[in-house]
Amino acid sequence: MHPNDPSQISRRKVLTAGASLGCAWVLLRGTGEAGGVLLQAKGGTKMPFTQPPLPYALNALVPYLSEEQMQFHYGRHHAAYFRNLNALVEGKPEAEMTLREVVKRSSGSVFNNAGQAWNHTFYWHCMSPSGGGEPKGELAAAIERDFGSFQQFRKAFSDAAVTLFGSGWAWLAADADGRLSIMALSNADTPLRYDKEPILTIDVWEHAYYIDYRNERGRFVEGFWTVVNWDFALARYKQRNQPEW
Ligand code: MN
What we know:
This protein is mainly α. Helix content is about 45%, strand content about 10%. It has a 3-stranded antiparallel sheet with strand order 2-1-3, with helices on both faces. Manganese (II) ion binds near residues 73, 120, 203, 205 and 208.
């Protein structure tokens, strides 16, 4: 099981991982609300789903995303989806499922919060302070095969992200046989609901960029390519039939 699977990670592991992030957690704990994610296990009751730590510091993606933007997005919005989900599933069968299972099987408010919890955890890993550049290996070959060239893929993905009406996510997704597609999905929707495996995503809810970019979604999407984590995407592509996520 992948260490970032929110349903499997133990509280001790979360605390250890959080400590390794150093100042990131100190800042989060300072906000109170976000720090509550770690402290939800009050009275010895373990919440079924725990928000995993960011894979980098809150300021690691500057200048693309400011620390304030990340504080609100990770520490407020993402944290709230976990908090809401835990409240909704308390004492219900979903509390015993993995987060992926809840995303695939649920509907209504449970789905909305589970989907957003899963999507954001995936999204953080789609970016890296050492990201950018072009895809490698068999993912690069599949992108050329299915979109013509990396440049054509990049334009099609950006267009899908910029033109998605309202709130949602643009995805690169793979079928079991490796065929790639771009999906522009509304709200919490995800390729997991269409039996496709997520490879890469960008969040285009306004809360993802409003502090740094105001209404300029196009500039926010363009900047994504400076931090995109192709190593993560390649790993997801290789493991599409036995996903660790
Ligand atoms: Mn978001």
